[in-house]
Specification:
It is built from 14 helices and 14 strands. The protein is α/β, with parallel strands linked by helices and 422 residues long. The longest helix has 14 residues.
């Protein structure tokens, strides 16, 4: 039982945060599963301009983890890669969204996000983009909104804790009785520790911006709640929901996916990357040596998405708004004006061989490779261009993972080397 905490209304961020445009901020009120109004802070590259939203190629729905906020996605908002609209949310209890005084577990967070996108009348095509524990929340939304879903992007996250491997030591330490409240709520230790994982260290002004919504213990209760909700054992209240999210990935075989990974991460190691690769065998992988947990800060994700998004097929995606929400079991519940879902769209062309990362799988898997700084797909990757795997020392049909190693740091040019994964 979680004791109700203090409440506070949603607000806009203070002026002067580096890289953040005030015109992006919106306050959006939804009705939650309890019938109560909840107000979110959302960053929207189109602001309140419906015409700009209509003209966009699609929407990048960006979901932060713990203990960051929508500020994480400021470079995407500034560049709007590929002409896509960018909507970055502050989850309830986090960032500058409302402090409801309630504990919101994974199932509730998935439901909350569905209610927000219904209120925004978000239309397809949508690519979800998520980091850390925003990953399971975004994937729960994606599974319930397949008619709008064009692709998924995941950065240093996880959907499964292997039974034969210990949970990350930093998480286990934070969950120690008597420690959780002290490091996540009463002090800013957890926020400082997370920001210290950036490679290289963040600019001091950017660090202060990340701290901005978490200045008091009352405003940090959501951080503690997020950590408390990590299901490290099968009896945890959110274990079944997370297992459902993981199981649903088996139905994503026709959904383009991109995995962005910083291997210098003491929380989400390559073990979790390999688990996601196994669940999404057609996924592209960009694993950047030297980058860490805050891979979105450590690398130029906006540039990567600008090159990947043109490979995402969007013609068959519904441009009708969906007001479906998700019930506590993770199942989609049609909203009052929902229309029947269209027939499943045809799968993208498939070929046996390497993905962008060179991930080699048997059977059918989408084949795309990074060639001369751009994404090549399907026949282009296996026709006039030399497939990535043919330049590797290992055989093309090897069942080992081949990872594309890219330079560390923003603004650096072409991939420096290609190596097989660990």
């Amino acid at each position: 039982m979680v004791t109700p905490g203090p409440t506070a209304p949603a607000s806009n961020p203070p002026a002067g945060l580096p890289g953040l445009e005030r015109s992006w901020s919106r306050l959006v009120t939804t009705t939650d599963a309890d019938g109560l109004d909840r107000t979110w802070h959302v960053l929207d590259s189109c602001g309140d301009d419906p015409a700009a939203a209509t003209d966009a190629a699609g929407t990048l729905l960006c979901v932060h983890g713990n203990p960051t906020w929508s500020y994480l996605w400021r470079d995407l908002l500034a560049t709007r890669p590929g002409g896509w609209r960018v909507v970055a949310v502050d989850q309830l209890e986090m960032g500058f969204s409302e402090r409801t005084g309630t504990h919101r577990d994974l199932a509730r967070r998935i439901d909350d996000l569905g209610r927000l996108t219904a209120e925004l009348q978000l239309t397809g095509p949508v690519v979800t983009v998520a980091h850390d524990w925003g990953g399971p929340v975004s994937l729960g939304w994606a599974a319930a909104h397949r008619e709008q879903l064009a692709g998924v992007v995941l950065a240093n996250t996880a959907v499964h804790q292997p039974a034969d491997a210990p949970a990350p030591s930093l998480i286990r330490a934070a969950l120690t009785p008597g420690v959780l409240e002290q490091v996540t709520v009463r002090s800013a230790t957890f926020v400082r520790g997370a920001l210290a994982l950036a490679r290289p260290r963040l600019d001091p002004a950017v660090e202060l911006a990340y701290h901005a919504p978490y200045r008091t213990a009352a405003r940090r209760r959501g951080i503690g709640g997020f950590v408390r909700d990590i299901p490290l054992d099968p009896d945890h209240p959110s274990a079944a929901t997370l297992a459902g999210v993981a199981a649903d990935l088996a139905t994503f075989e026709d959904v383009p996916a991109l995995l962005l990974w910083g291997p210098e991460d003491p929380i989400f190691s390559d073990r979790y990357l390999h688990d996601l690769e196994a669940r999404l065998p057609g996924a592209q992988v960009q694993r950047t040596p030297g980058a860490g947990h805050l891979v979105v800060e450590d690398t130029d994700v906006a540039d990567t998405l600008a090159r990947w998004l043109p490979t995402v097929p969007v013609a068959a995606i519904s441009r009708s708004a969906s007001d479906d929400v998700v019930d506590a079991s993770g199942a989609a519940v049609p909203g009052p004006s929902a229309s029947p879902a269209p027939a499943p769209r045809a799968s993208a062309s498939r070929a046996s061989g390497s993905s962008t990362s060179g991930s080699s799988t048997s059977g059918s898997s989408t084949s795309r490779s990074w060639t001369s700084g751009s994404w090549a797909s399907g026949a282009a990757a296996s026709g006039s261009r030399t497939p990535l795997w043919s330049t590797l020392e290992e055989p093309a049909l090897s069942d080992r993972l081949a990872l594309l190693e890219v330079p560390h740091g923003r603004g650096e040019a072409a991939p420096a080397s290609r190596t097989f994964g660990e």
